Amino acid sequence: MKQTVRESKTSAGVKTIWQDMRFALRMLLKSAGFTAVIVVTLALGIGANTAIFSLVNAVLLQSIPVARPEQLVVLQWSAHTWPNTSGMYNSSDCWREPNTGSVSGCYLSFPMFAEIRDRRDLFASATAFAGPTSLDVAGNGQASIAAGELVSGSYFETLGVRSAMGRTLITADDQTGAAPVAVLDYAYWQSAFGGNPDVVGRAIRLNNVLFTIVGVADQAFTRLTPQSSVNLYVPLTQGVVGESLCTADTG
Questions:
Q1: I need a surface site. Which of 81, 106, 146, 233 has the fewest CB within 10 A?
Q2: Strand partners, 233
Q3: Distance (Å) of CA 167 to CA 30, 173, 181
């Protein structure tokens, strides 16, 4: 009867678990080598699963941090043979080579992008970007290398991405002869500029060309493609505009 009353108490379960844990700990301490192998195996297993889930979460589960991700499409071309062009390159996140022997890609020539951009009967808006590319950054203390992306003036407007400070790039920034300007990624602004609110209007040199920082992108905008990390954005006309990746908002 005493045992029955003891087991009916709320604390009985907790006491039993504590006793089991103490017994398990004593058994593990008796076999230190075996215990070490178990701990290392569990650590490797947990670490590997965490890394795999992080990759799957970033690539497959998380939505693109833009205003209307379900309305974005990536335009691709396909051909039976390689196009007769110089300097053709492609992006790994949209490259496909079907088993049929044909070739395809998502890098379009700038004239093709301009044609698509002007077809408002097909798309509400269109934007192009190329990169990321390594840029030599100077003007903020010690020179460093940053990942820059060349984007058209409609990039942030099409994606519905606002600025955390200052402004984003606009169509006027992407016109021939426009003053070189740049928009910082939020995380890069925090790490490279210490989150200084006076960064807007500051001049920096990118590949020895003077640019003016006009704003910082919204903190929520961390990526457009899963494997790409961008530190700053500059107008497409400030770089070589031979081929550019084109995305369009069908909304």
A1: 81
A2: 149, 183
A3: 65, 12, 11
Distance CA 83, CA 89 (A): 11
Dist CA 156 CA 158 (whole Å)? 6
CB atoms within 10 A of CB 156: 24
Amino acid at 18: W
pLDDT band at 217 (very low <50, low <70, confident <90, very high): very high
Residue 25 has pLDDT above 70, yes or no: yes
pLDDT at 1 over 90: no
d(CA 180, CA 209): 8
- Give Cα separations from 236 to 47, 59, 141 (angstroms): 40, 26, 26
Residues 116/77, Cβ–Cβ less than 8 Å = no
For residue 132, whether the previous peptide bond is cis, meaning omega lies within 30 degrees of 0, is yes
3-state secondary structure the chain: CHHHHHHHCCHHHHHHHHHHHHHHHHHHHHCHHHHHHHHHHHHHHHHHHHHHHHHHHHHHHCCCCCCCHHHEEECCEEECCCCCCCCCCCCCCCCCCCCCCCEEECEEEHHHHHHHHCCCCCCCEEEEEEEEEEEEEECCCCCEEEEEEEECCCHHHHHCCCEEEECCCCHHHHCCCCCCEEEECHHHHHHHHCCCHHHCCCEEEECCEEEEEEEEECCCCCCCCCCCCCCEEEEHHHCCCCEEEEEEECC
How many residues are given for the chain?
251
Distance CA 148, CA 169 (A): 14
